[in-house]
Amino acid sequence: MRSRLPTLLAASFAAILFLAVQASPVHAESILNFSLNNSGSITATASGGTSTTITTTGGAQAVNIGLLNGSTVDIAAYLSLSATSSGAVTTFQGSLYQTYNGTFTITANANGSGTNYLSGTFTNVSFDSELSGLNGGTGATLSANDPTATIVFTSSVITDLSAPSTASFTFSNVSPALSVTGTTVSSFTASGSGTFSANPPPAVPEPSTLALAGIGALGMIGYGLRRRKASGA
Q1: Sequence-separated contacts (24+) of 141-147 with Cβ below 8 Å
Q2: Which 3 state secondary structure label does DSSP give 60?
Q3: What residues does each domain of the chain span?
């Protein structure tokens, strides 16, 4: 019995520590964000009242990359975005929602060549907008979180693109104010910015979680010692 006690306590502590690590939250890290230059814009085009396509106006638009793979930078690049609705628009408490599938590229050159800072495809991305309230119908987001949506990133400068991944395009100064045409979002133009995340850090238990694990282990050690004393060991 004596020889088994240290082994039992070690195994118990390892189990508690494993659970503590598993319970720790995992957050993806920002890998890139950008903003459209003042002259750039996004265009949404409603077709026949049944579908809407959101694209960069007149082809690729100039952007400034403000963060790249965790480092603050200031890089001039070009964004090309194409997203088409994949379902009918719904409304709830003053907001409208619609899912989109599409692609985007952020590259050094307007024709998609040169350094590929970040490109991707996405499905089941959610378009969320405020039809009333603080935004006054002039703000919206096109965002996705893997695995709820499917996001696939590629890049020639960012090496770790592992899931969970997130992609978010924010539209501001939407004109005219957001509305619905038939079963889809009405046409509009807007300025925009974007944020992308991936490659979560390794799961590390928080100090409070480690403290709980330590208390649990000490309690088990005390229980084992009391049993040994009671048995006359």
Answers
A1: 141/168, 141/169, 141/170, 141/171, 142/54, 142/83, 142/100, 142/168, 142/169, 142/171, 143/167, 143/168, 143/169, 144/168
A2: coil
A3: 31-198
Contact status, residue 143 vs residue 125, Cβ threshold 8 Å: yes
Class of residue 39 by CB neighbours under 10 A (exposed 0-12, middle 13-18, buried 19+): exposed
pLDDT per residue as tens digits for the range 179-191: 899 999 999 999 9
* H/E run at residue 210: helix 207-230
State the CB neighbour count (10 A cutoff) for residue 98.
Answer: 24
Are the CB atoms for 75 and 68 separated by under 8 Å?
Answer: yes
Residue with tokens 């003042």: 38
Strands 61-68 and 42-47: unpaired
CA–CA dist 189, 172 (Å, integer):
9
Q: Cα separation of 79 and 81, whole Å?
A: 6
Determine the 3-state secondary structure of 50 from DSSP: coil
Using one digit for the tens of pLDDT, what is the confidence trace for 135-192? 457 889 998 888 788 999 999 999 999 888 999 999 999 999 888 999 999 999 999 9
Q: Would you call 47 helix, strand, or coil by DSSP?
A: strand
Q: For residues 159, 161, 162 and 168, what is the CA-based torsion angle, rounded to 10 degrees?
A: 160
CA distances from 124 to 5, 7, 44, 166, 178 (A): 53, 50, 17, 12, 21
Cα 216 to Cα 82: distance, rounded to the nearest angstrom: 53
DSSP string spanning 10-30?
HHHHHHHHHHHHHHS---PEE
